[in-house]
Amino acid sequence: MLLILSRRPEAIVTQSHTPSFAVVIPAHNEEAGIGDCVTAVDAVLDGLPNETAVIVVDDGSRDGTSDALARIAVGHPRLTVVRHMVNRGYGAGLRTGTEAAAERELDYVLFMDSDLTNDPRYLVDFARLMGEGFDVIKASRYVSGGGVDGVPAWRAWVSVLGNGVARLLFRVPIRDCTNGFRAVRTSLLNAIQLKENGFAVIMEELYLLRPLAKSYAEVPVVLTARAGDLAPSSFSFGPRAMGRYLKYPLLSFVGSWRVRP
Fold first, then answer.
1. C-alpha to C-alpha distance for 209 and 183, rounded to whole angstroms
2. CA-to-CA distance for 253 and 247, rounded, in angstroms?
3. What is the DSSP string of 198-215?
4. Which residues make Cβ contacts (< 8 Å) with residue 174, sequence separation at least 6?
5. What is the pLDDT of residues 49-70, one digit of tens each?
6. Which residue, 9, 52, 205, 208, has fewest beta-carbon neighbours within 10 Å?
C-alpha cells in the first residue's frame, strides 16, 4: 500500500513522461556488501520502464570497496562510481551523488543505504509515486505496512520518540522524518544548499525543502537489521548527534528560514 499524505491543490501535476531517476548510494568501507547491493538494485531497475542510473559514491573507503565496485561495474552498465579520495561524510556523499544525477538531467534522486536494510523491491513503489508527480517521497516505518525487523528495541524506541518530536516541530505530513531512504525532485535539491556532512543532513534537507515542496508521500517499508558480516554503521546515538538532528525541527518550529551557523 502506498500512502499519499499531502498534496496541495496547486501541486497536482500531470506527468507528460515517465520520470527518470538515479539511485544514489553512499558507501564507506562496504567491501563485504556493496556488490550484493548493486546487483539487487539493478535487478529491480531492470523491471521498470523508467530511465535509471545507479550512482555509488565511494566515500574514501580504505578497504576493498573500490576494487569490488570495479569488478561489479563490468556486468552493470547502469552503474557509475564516483570516488572521494578521503572520507568526507554521508552528507557530502549525497551532494556528490546529486550533482552526478543533475549532470545527467534526471528528474529525481533516490537515496538509499548500501547495506540492504531497506529492500530494493520498494523502488517499484517509489517509481509509481514519482510518476504521480510527488515532490518528496519518504520511506516510512511508522505507517500501515511499515515496521522494523531485528532492530534492537531501544533503538526502535529512540526512533519512535525522535520522529514524533520531529513531526510535531516540522509540521510536515511525514511520519518518518529521519528515514534516509527517500526520493526528491532533482530540481528541488538543486534549489537548496545542504551543508551537513553527517547523517543530520536528512533533517537539514527536510527543513530546507519545507517552503519549496508542494507534495509529500510515504512508502511503507520494513527496516531490517544490518547483516553481521558488514562493517559497523557509523551512525551515532550520542547527545551531539541527536542535537544536530533536533536543530532543524526546532528552527522550523520557531519560523526561522535560515540555518544559523
1. 12
2. 10
3. STTHHHHHHHHHTTT--E
4. 5, 136, 138, 140, 167, 206, 216, 218
5. 999 999 999 999 999 999 999 9
6. 9
Average model confidence (pLDDT) for the chain? 87
| pTM of the predicted model as reported, rounded to 2 decimal places | 0.86
- What's the rounded Cα separation, in Å, for the pair 118 and 261? 33
> Is residue 220's pLDDT more than 90?
yes
Give the pLDDT mean for 155-167: 79
- Walk me through the domains of the chain, giving residue ranges and CATH numbers: 16-226+234-253 (3.90.550.10)
DSSP alpha helices (H): ranges in the chain? Answer: 34-46, 65-73, 90-103, 123-131, 153-170, 186-190, 201-209, 239-253
According to DSSP, residue 11 is labeled G
Q: What is the mean pLDDT of residues 231-237?
A: 51
Q: What is the grid cell recorded at 58? A: 565511494
